[in-house]
Amino acid sequence: MVNTDVFSKLPDDVVLKIIFNLDDDPKDWAKLACVSTKFSSLLNTFCWKIKCTQTIPTLVSDLLSGEINNSPSGGWAALFKLCFCCPGLAQAGVIVENLDVGPSNLSHLGTFDNPVSVFESVKALNDVSIKKWVEDECSDDVTKRVVDDDGVGGNVCKRRKVCRSVGSHLACGARELSREQGNKLLASRFRGDCLYICGWPGCVHNDGKRNYMLFRGIFKNFRESRVWRTLSDGDRNKVNLNCAYCSCKHTWNLHSAFCLRRAFGFHEDGEPVVRAYVCENGHVSGAWTDWPLYT
């Protein structure tokens, strides 16, 4: 048990030096925020912002239009989490019935609103949903035969990491956020909006039927975007799906609001090839699937 009284007597600059020596694993800071209000305050006031500006300086500058004294929508902790954390199958909106979770496994998964995390013994971890960070359960047991550059089949196997986590967790795959990827997602009339999402294929999950390439992202100036006007002017109903990155309890379905490219289409069982959800702070979670064979 950590004696927080010792740290409460230390000056802030000393505590900050200790905190910045624990930045190798993003989960460490999330755990530290639960230890005491002092740690939580320092992380929220200084650490998340500094880490974001060091890790993703170009994105931060663009999101804030160069005004570094401002804060991104949803706060620095949410942006930091978005860089490293996959939303998981639940917050990406994948249909629960599709999940490869039998009755015998449900007891240890918890509810989808509060998935089991690495911080099982902690009751409250901030209002930015850091409590949803779960242990990265990526496994590389899925192999895929590939064809060499000459077009001749070979025996080389390429391993692809496949995650089984239902809740949010440290992401596998690309962590950079790209506007180019965001442009591929939105319908043509929204191309003036600025959406950053992680690179393809994101964090790959499998439910036993098909692969889900989970992605996450963020809109720049979401309240000024055409997507926002479409959602608000059209009086689109929110769905009961929590944002994986901030405290928003409801999100909008971008697919049903016709904000995504229609060319993506559906699988023969009616499941959309792409689904995406956005919260009031402009955080986006969603999933690509493999293209259906009949298209």
Keywords:
single chain; 295 residues; alpha+beta; two-stranded antiparallel sheet; 20% strand
Furnish the topology, listing elements before pairings.
Elements: H1 4-8, H2 12-20, H3 26-32, H4 37-55, H5 57-63, H6 76-84, E1 85-86, H7 88-91, H8 103-106, E2 110-111, E3 114-115, E4 139-147, E5 153-162, E6 169-170, E7 177-178, H9 179-185, E8 195-198, E9 203-206, E10 211-219, H10 226-233, E11 252-253, E12 274-278, E13 283-289
Antiparallel strand pairs: 1-6, 2-3, 4-5, 7-8, 8-10, 9-10, 10-13, 11-12, 12-13
Helix pairs in contact: 2-4, 4-5, 4-6
Q: What does this entry look like structurally?
A:
The chain is of the alpha+beta class and 295 residues long. The chain has ten helices and 13 strands. Strands 7, 8, 9, 10, 11, 12 and 13 form a seven-stranded antiparallel beta sheet that branches. A two-stranded antiparallel sheet has the order 1-6. A hairpin with a 4-residue loop joins strand 9 and strand 10 (211-219). Helix 4 packs across helix 5. The longest helix has 19 residues, at 37-55.
